[in-house]
Specification:
Largest sheet: 5 strands, antiparallel
CATH topology of the largest domain: Alpha-Beta Plaits
Number of helices: 6
Distance between the termini: 56 Å
Low-confidence stretches: 1-14, 175-180
Shape: globular
Number of domains: 2
Strand content: 25-35%
Number of strands: 9
Order of helices and strands: HEHEEHHEEHEEHEE
CATH architecture of the largest domain: 2-Layer Sandwich
Length: about 180
């Protein structure tokens, strides 16, 4: 690199923080919003701006160069995911936003039993949210219900129920399906 190139790079003003929206994994119940806020307090280079629980999305403000030094643009989501997972003991993560239009998604509601705490609800959630085609999911141990928003071309009720059963979650009768 020539001396002129170095001077030019040094004269370039630093990027200002910008806002980015990402899908959040681990946001399976409304009380997890507070857990996410608490976790983000430990990541000073990344500011949580707002959380959309219904869409499992959050908007953050950060300077990619400071928050993820050396990361290329296509590595930002992966690096953010790693950092957030580490800080949250692997209960939160980041994934790209759903690109499928809402009218192409299906909502599955599955009554479940045997969940008596937030940890059990997380276990049920954890068994399905990583499956290809699961865009987001919620679990309520109080209501005994799991709700998943899925791409029906990639996953179906049988796959979800099988994953839940393998995790030891009881599937109750009278499951309902509604399309969005």
């Amino acid at each position: 690199m020539t001396a002129g190139a170095v001077a030019c790079a040094e004269d370039k003003p630093p990027e200002a923080p910008a806002s980015f929206t990402h899908q959040i994994t681990g946001l399976f119940s409304p009380d997890r919003v507070d857990d996410l806020k608490e976790t983000m307090k430990h990541l000073p280079e990344i500011v949580l701006v707002k959380v959309d629980y219904e869409r499992a999305e959050a908007t953050f403000r950060y300077d990619p160069a400071k928050a993820f030094p050396g990361a290329k643009p296509d590595q930002i989501v992966e690096r953010f995911d790693q950092i957030l997972r580490n800080e949250s003991n692997h209960t939160f993560g980041i994934k790209p936003l759903c690109e499928l239009p809402a009218d192409k998604l299906t909502i599955l509601e599955i009554p479940v039993g045997g969940l008596d705490c937030k940890g059990c609800a997380f276990g049920a959630y954890d068994s399905i949210y990583r499956l290809p085609g699961v865009e987001r999911a919620t679990v309520s141990f109080k209501k005994g219900q799991l709700k998943a928003v899925i791409n029906p071309e990639k996953v179906d009720r049988v796959v979800l129920e099988t994953a839940l059963k393998q995790r030891g979650v009881e599937i109750k009768p009278k499951s309902t399906v509604s399309e969005r």
